[in-house]
């Protein structure tokens, strides 16, 4: 097939399902490799002008991520992850931005891609993990919305930077999974969504 005629609109479920299956039952590294290959191919064949990030939007986006993490960090226990953990956290964030914000959001919009993003973080390998990850579905949905708003107003480079920053801080502490922490997590995500919505609204008004 000619790569110039590559149509991802009818094929996007294949890497999505493969990613979920591989991440849960075989190798997360292989899962992200599959997602990176398919989404990068789709993104490169998509026509459209890239957004030029604004300094104000970039600072606001990254600041909202820092504030959200500062709210959560005191509730967790800190650790010292290995370099490999930091590397995987950064790479996975960029791959997710290319696929969910760079491809799915372009096709379906912010809310559908955020829903797909939240389902992709479900852990299906055992019942306990399934229940725990289901409780975190609202968190991942709002995180997907926030990153989608950043991508909409400032482009995927800024949303990738924000997602990398979020992941790098998140791997340095572990949160207990209880009702209070989940509510705090969702509340901090809601604040992040509100903050990231401001540049998007400004962009829409200018347009």
- Quick one: how many beta strands? 2
Succession of helices and strands: HHHEHHHHHEH
Overall tally of domains: 1
Radius of gyration: 17 Å
Summarize the structure.
With 207 residues, this protein is mainly α. It has nine helices and two strands.
Describe this structure in words.
With 207 residues, the protein is an all-alpha fold. The protein has one domain. It is 75% helix and 2% strand. It has nine helices and two strands, in the order αααβαααααβα. It has helices at 13-25, 28-44, 55-72, 83-108, 110-120, 127-135, 137-154, 156-170, 179-206; strands at 77-78, 173-174. It has a two-stranded antiparallel ribbon with strand order 1-2. α4 (83-108) packs antiparallel against α5. It is globular. Mean pLDDT is 85; it is low at 1-5.
